[in-house]
Predict the structure.
Amino acid sequence: MLLSIKDLSVSYGKNQALKNINLDIEPNTVTAIIGPSGCGKSTFLRSLNRLTELTPNTTTRGSINYKEHNIYEMDPMEVRYHIGMVFQKPNPFPKSIYENVAFGPKLNGYDNNLQEIVEESLKKADLWLEVKDRLKDNAYTLSGGQQQRLCIARSLAVKPDILLMDEPTSALDPLSTAKIEDLMTTLKEHYTIIIVTHNMQQAGRVADNVAFFLNGELIEYGSSEKIFTKPFDKRTEDYITGRFG
């Protein structure tokens, strides 16, 4: 199993955000994390590459095993090298398009053919044809959708196994959203993707598996088809049909 979460609990001070989560993530799949606001989705996602511990007074119990290695026994930077993150709002660095993509490999000491890595990563993010003649331009000159695909390319440049996406299309227009969704479908051939989304239609379109969280607990986890057509828990059915949340 690529990623195995066992009895994961996370607290911020006295507030328990996650309660004994057990979940296995299969390779080369898209897993959507759904649930109402405040249910623990983003905390769960940020736990997977140890970003939660950057928040003061955070306590974590349980284990997250990446290729049978507990990530809490690994160097945090090494964890984030293998498990990348794309945030809700595009967050390119105030540098050129080229420097944004080359930043990670440079940081990790790679000084060979950076041009090749930049081109390959931009192609994987379906952005190369749009920017190949603008690589020296500031990343802020790109549209919002292009900036988000640039952030995906930046994550891919360090060759992660897993790509975490925290509502990556919530700030984008429908056309840019469709491009990101198509991109996820293509990328799962080589990567494992875990996405937090409030959009049930999006989860249905892109996800192989869906996990429903409520009040910090994992209520139900299964194939997208099963969750959206025959959930076993009434709370799941109530949420996906819009009765609450």
In short: Strands lie at 3-12, 15-25, 30-34, 58-66, 69-70, 83-86, 162-166, 192-196, 209-214, 217-223.
